[in-house]
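Figure S4 source data
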Amino acid sequence: MPCPFRAVMVRAILAGRGVADIFDEVSEDLRAERARQLLHRYGYLLILAAVLVVVAVGGWKVWQSRERGDRDAVAAAFITASRNASTPLGTASPARAEALDTLTRMAANAPGGYRTLARLRAAALKVTAGDLPGALALWDQVAADTDADPQLRDVANLLWVQHQIDAGDPAAVQGRLAPLIAPGNPWRPLALECQAWLLLRTGDTDGARAILRPLVADMRAPDGVRARAGGLLTQLGETPPQGTPAPEAGG
């Protein structure tokens, strides 16, 4: 390979250029020669890197598209199952049976949010179908799922309690109620109503009255809860109080 320095020197001398210009041109030629050598030696690595970047970007786009498609498919399946689950009850309801089958599969395999909703919806269908143990198991799954929305976990616990007030172990029921009756919990009024029923079941009438009185007067509680609490107090031989909201003290 000819020496670039010698060739440049010869060209510069013949052209009558100065020493500084000569060395500048030599430096440029040396850099160009070094770049050609590096490209010849490592060019395949640059090509490979470029290919890998293109493949990675393409794969990411495909993955994103597939993820969107999967989410859309799950959403469509949940909406269809919910619509079928809302068909009127009857001796034979293929739509409800199909909805329960779909929701049961989603309760096991769907992504987090839809899995939780599917479990709650499937549990409601199981209750209407007379399968209380199956519904209780699904509520347990939601309540124990630390990835589920905390309010939905509270809903699962409340539904479990409402269906175990009459026959469930009192200690287990009370354990589920404890976080629900805490001040600030949005389900507190409904949970207090359940606790009053639990106390009546275990024979603590005075304890039930102590919960029902402030619950009737709590203007923040749903009207239905207040009305039922007032009716229960009347059955217990006490005139429901009228007046101010109940304090946020524990039940």
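Figure S5 source data
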Amino acid sequence: MNEHPTTDGEPQPAGPATVSGSSRYGRRALLSVAAAAGAGVAVSLAGGTAPAEAASRDNGGPVLLGEANTATAGTTITNADGGAFAGNTSANGGHSGVHGNDTSTAGGYGVAGSSTHGFGVAGDSTNGTGVQGTTSGPGGIGVAGIDNSGEDLSSGVTGTSTIGFGVSGNCPNGVAIYGESANGYAVYATAPGGTGLLVQGPSVFQGTTKFSNSGFATVKKNDKSVKVKLAGVTVANIVLATLQTLQPGVAVAAAVPDAGSFTITLTGSVPADTNVGWFVIG
């Protein structure tokens, strides 16, 4: 006959297994609890009101759901066949499936993701926001993308959209999207079959502005015209031209576009080589 010690040291006959007061469970349930305890898992028997702990609450003990868990060592969950951890919530009111919070003064990560060939952090939403970054302090950054690969085609932040906006910025009084680069391009836009950059409303350009469809051509001495070859030019383009050297009595008479070129004609021949600036629009 099995005996269990009591608080006063006198052995007592073993009674039926109980969890959470008077709730009774059969032999099969007890074996399940024992197996879970051997694996280091915290379980709660069906119908009970308190979890059955398989180990101490100190470091190395189980993680108990619904309770605060504190440790000084990191916790690692590894799954070779599927996702290591999943967090879900169906509650209303701004709750999170997974919430990470960093309160260190050195600057850590609330949530960190790393991937060798996939996505470090992926966000997906049917009607809401896949990934949201919020900052409330001066100089903070809601979402930051950093590329340290040194490759031309790599990106710190990439936005992709089938119909809508790949990257969207909204700021009522400040700067919606800000880009900064010491030696490269702060913002780069390309669209092989569409429009690289669409601007609606007034635009402000500060500093020197360069256009690949602009330049200058030279009208040779005693000539009055010059033909400029430029890929992509059609008869539908507009060509603006102006003399870069003052020649009394001589001006630009016309700048006529053609397929792959345009011709600048002056009102008279020039006494010396004369540069003419041009700009193709459209």
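The longest strand covers residues 274-281. The first helix runs from residue 27 to 38.
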